[in-house]
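Bumping my old thread because nobody answered last time. Still need a sequence for this structure:
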């Protein structure tokens, strides 16, 4: 997903614009998420991809866009989260924190609450006890996992290539030094 694709979609922007204008949401831009993206980039990716699917399936595109944007609405990084919520699994507890934060930001429908709090039901045994109630919740769950995987894997080939080139250059330089001293 490119920045321009969601930014240029006026229907989508009309649904989330009020949320994007909030400083609390903008602060997600400063938090690294899935190693190579920010939490805001990830949330926008989940939101917009889910929104496009919901439109094609004639589902509630407003709720899926808004809840998709707020599904990871917490401001702690993994280490801070672990310290603040000692004894809780990040996978099973961060949806509850995100839901509490989202409720402080805006009024939420039952559907939006379900989407946010159930988006990790596949990733944690504690979450599987209460399955999502709505089709939209399943969509955000699957899209979240897709986006997370894509965010982690997309930069890897370039990083691997860069690392291999760096190591090859070091080996080459050591060989040149060894040959020069002999």
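Sorry it took so long. Here it is:
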């Amino acid at each position: 997903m490119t920045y321009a694709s969601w930014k240029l979609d006026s229907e989508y922007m009309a649904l989330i614009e009020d949320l994007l204008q909030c400083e609390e949401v903008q602060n997600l831009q400063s938090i690294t998420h899935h190693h190579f993206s920010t939490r805001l980039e990830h949330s926008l990716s989940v939101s917009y991809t889910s929104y496009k699917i919901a439109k094609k399936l004639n589902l509630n595109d407003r709720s899926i866009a808004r809840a998709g944007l707020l599904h990871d609405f917490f401001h702690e990084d993994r280490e801070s989260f672990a310290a603040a919520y000692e004894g809780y699994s990040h996978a099973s507890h961060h949806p509850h924190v995100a839901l509490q934060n989202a409720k402080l930001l805006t009024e939420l429908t039952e559907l939006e609450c379900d989407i946010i709090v159930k988006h990790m039901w596949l990733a944690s045994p504690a979450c599987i006890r209460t399955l999502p109630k709505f089709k939209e919740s399943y969509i955000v769950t699957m899209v979240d996992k897709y986006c997370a995987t894509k965010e982690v894997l997309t930069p890897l080939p370039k990083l691997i290539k860069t690392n291999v080139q760096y190591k090859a250059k070091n080996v080459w330089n050591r060989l040149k030094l060894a040959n020069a001293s002999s």
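The two ends are 54 Å apart (CA to CA). Let me know if any region looks off to you.
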